[in-house]
Amino acid sequence: MEIGIAKSQKRFFIKEDLKKHCLVNDGWVTIQGDVIDVTNVIKSNRSKKGVENIIKYLGNDMSHLFKGANKDPYIRNPILSEELANNDKNYILHFPVHYINDKNTLDVTPWFKDRSLIIGKMSKKEIKIQITNILTYQEEFLVVPVEETLDEICNRYLDCNFHARSYTWKDINENVLNMNLTLIENNLISDLEALEYMEIPDEFK
């Protein structure tokens, strides 16, 4: 039985992941480390002036437009006219998300404060690893979040080798690795600047 989360259910993302979602029908942004899927926000408000100020940041970081843990936007006035909003390149329309709360009353929450739109976190540190298949001597280099487990890294590696889950993952000293732990927890790196490659014997039959 395979373990781990599906490739579409990553907990942590790297810049390359974010940049793949830069379209109006598949758009992500990041604000203060949170990765936010704004696809439906754009779809629901496509005809409104000012939505272009979100679209231009798709696949990128918008943190500089917000302040504090509450993600309050840096704007002159939270209730600007649509004309002013459209002419302000940094104005982020509130585009409310409506839903019924636990008290059975209607809540109106700005999209950038709606936690249901958050799909994960940006990695605090991206690292480049080398994976070597010691049977075929095939080598691949991957950039991965330092927070990911080896099982999650394996999900990324499936794009390079679809047999990846049939291998026993070992380090350079032939120690079997724990797929539920991170690179650091498996003692593969002592710090984030010095990373030794992992060897993967091919045991696929």
Classify the helix fraction into a percent range.
Answer: 10-25%
Radius of gyration (Å): 21 Å
User: Percent of residues in beta strands?
Assistant: 25-35%
Question: How many beta-strand elements?
Answer: 14
- Specify the overall morphology: elongated
Which structural class do the helices and strands define? Answer: alpha+beta
Strand order of the largest sheet: 1-9-4-3-2
Average pLDDT figure: 78
Question: Sheet bearing the most strands, described?
Answer: 5 strands, mixed
SSE series: EHEEEHHEEHEEEEEHEEE
Helix count, per DSSP? 5
Terminal Cα separation, in Å?
Answer: 16 Å
- Low confidence ranges: 1-8, 76-81, 193-205
What does this structure look like?
- With 205 residues, this protein is of the alpha+beta class.
- 14% of the residues lie in helices and 27% in strands.
- It contains five helices and 14 strands.
- The protein has helices spanning 15-19, 39-44, 52-55, 82-87, 150-157, and strands spanning 12-13, 22-23, 26-31, 34-37, 66-67, 72-73, 96-100, 106-110, 118-122, 126-133, 139-145, 189-191, 194-195, 198-200.
- The strands form five sheets. Strands 1-9-4-3-2 form a five-stranded mixed beta sheet. Strands 11-10-14 form a three-stranded mixed beta sheet, covered by helices on one side. A two-stranded antiparallel ribbon has the order 5-6.
- Strand 3 and strand 4 form a beta hairpin.
- The chain is elongated, with a radius of gyration of 21 Å.
